[in-house]
Amino acid sequence: MTYTPSKLLSFEEFLTQYGDNTRYELIGGELKDLAPTGPHEAVAGSIAGRMYVEIFRANLNGLIPKTCLIKPLHAQATALRPDVVVLDTAQLTQEPLWQKEPLICNGSTIQLVAEVVSTNWQDDYARKVEEYAFLKIPEYWIVDFRGLGGLQFIGNPKQPTITICQLVDGVYQQQQYRLGEPIDSYLFPNLQLRLDELMPS
C-alpha cells in the first residue's frame, strides 16, 4: 500500500513526522505504508529470534536492533526500515547518527537485511534489491511466506518462497527456497531453518 502525499518528503521531513512510526518508510521521497499485520510481525520476530540464537551460539559481532532506519548516504530522500537487520557492532563507532538516532548510513555496518513481503512486494523484489546491493550489504533475505510476489520473481504457480540474495561482485546472486527445503545462509552457515518453521499459525 502506498500513500502519495501532495508533495514529496525530504529525509528531514520524514524523520520529523514519521521517524518514530515503524509503519512507514521513505523511498525516493515517497511515503510508503508498510501495513504490517500480525502474521507479518510474527514471521519477522521468528527470523530475528533464530538469527539472535546463532549470533550468541557462534559468538558473532552481531546486533539486531528492535527498530532501525537505513539512510543511504547517496540518497537524499530515502529511509528504509527493514523488518530484520543484523549490524556489525564493531562498525557502529563509524556511524555518524547512531548515538542520537537508530539510523545507519554506512552499508559496511550492515551484515544482513531481511524483508517480510507484504502488499508492497514490488519494493522488496525490485527497488530494495538495488538499494541494498548499492550499499554492498552482503546478504538480503526476501521472505514471501504468502507467495505474493510477481510470477517473474517467484514463478508459476505462486507459492511461499524465501529468496536469499548473496552479493557477488556488486550484484546479488539469488537462490530460492520453497516449503520443506533447508535454506543456505552465508552469514549463518550453521543455521538450520526451513520456511515451514517460519509460517504463522
Indicate the mean pLDDT.
92
User: How far apart lie the N and C ends?
Assistant: 24 Å
Largest pleated sheet: 6 strands, mixed
Question: Rg from C-alpha positions?
Answer: 16 Å
**Topology as a string of helices (H) and strands (E):** HEEHEEEEEHEHEE
Our count of domains comes out at: 1
Helix content: 10-25%
Structural class: alpha+beta
Largest sheet strand order: 3-5-7-8-9-10
Low-pLDDT segments, ≥5 res: none
Number of helices: 4
Shape estimate: globular
Number of strands: 10
Q: What fraction of the residues are assigned to beta strands by DSSP?
A: 15-25%
Q: Quick recap of the structure?
A:
InterPro entries: Nuclease_put_TT1808 (IPR012296), Restrct_endonuc-II-like (IPR011335), Uma2 (IPR008538). It holds the Pfam family Uma2. Helix content is 23%, strand content 23%.
Q: What does this protein structure show overall?
A:
The chain is α+β, with helices and mostly antiparallel strands and 201 residues long. The strands form 3 sheets. It has a 6-stranded mixed beta sheet with strand order 3-5-7-8-9-10. It has one domain. The chain is built from 4 helices and 10 strands, in the order αββαβββββαβαββ. Residues 11-195 form the Putative restriction endonuclease domain. This is Uma2 family endonuclease. GO terms for molecular function: endonuclease activity. Keywords: Endonuclease, Hydrolase, Nuclease.
